Please model this.
Amino acid sequence: MVAATKALALSIDLDDLACYRAIHGRGGRLGKRPRTEADILPIYRTALPRFRHFCEANKARATLFLPTIHLDFIQGLGAELRAWVNDGYEVASHSHSHPYALTRLPRGLQQAEVAGSGIRIAEALGAHPKGFRAPGYTLSTELARIIREAGFHYDASLMRSPVYVGAKGVAISLKWLQSVRFQRRSASASILGDPRVLCAPTLPYRMDEAAFHRRGSGLLEWPISCTPTYAGAMPWIGTLLALLPERAVRQLARTVAHRSALGIEFHAIDFLEASEFGGAELKRLQPELRVPLNARLARYAIALAQHARDGFAPGASLQDAFEQVDGL
Ligand SMILES: [Zn+2]
Model:
């Protein structure tokens, strides 16, 4: 076994079920058909306990990216999240209301989403969060500036997978066409971000204040990790791991073994069965939900075991993983 010196960051985005309706153009865009408690409860009552069990079985910790609007829905959520922090996890911001088009909102509304969510977490947990992840991985130079001005130390939104960006573009176009043809459906709430993400560094870096995709002395960035180009340049996220046979997970995990820092990003839905939240329609739209939960959990664990064999440290929160990266 190689000495564990390479940073491995684990994170989970606590997207609720209304977010998925918005992506798929079902039930209207977020904000027009408000969330209900039923959209949020399965995240905290079912998915998160499983995620904690998964982390602890693998001696790992992680960052929880929270849409702070959830604090308005779940009584006692602040106290629950404080308990996570006391156990070595990090709670960071995933905006306030998870607007997919955050970078297209007027500056004042972007500030309200970013700074407002930081204040909500500070109130609930007693300390300002260090990290921010934008909904839908869309980043801009202006948003990076707003994140820094709001007192965050790092961003973790950058998605530089051409495969992901291309697939998202096709999906948005198809949803738009369907919304025109079947007028009861909405277009997707997703948007395509700035294409310069595809030129950004692959490893953690400090952003140039004038151009987020270039190195500089500004906000820290932890990009979403992707497999190398020869291995499909696919984002190394729970959705992908869930869909791959075990042997393929192991083989693809080996293709990122050379990196000095790596992240695995999960979503809460990666730890749910569709039957647990009345998600029959979502199951048709999200293929990973058709993989039985036990098979998915086994695939996630295989990835972590391979990373350990390849010399990565046990999974850590992003704030702790940054400490293990030299030269920042
Ligand atoms: Zn999200």
Q: What stands out?
A: Residues 74 and 317 are 24 Å apart (CA to CA).
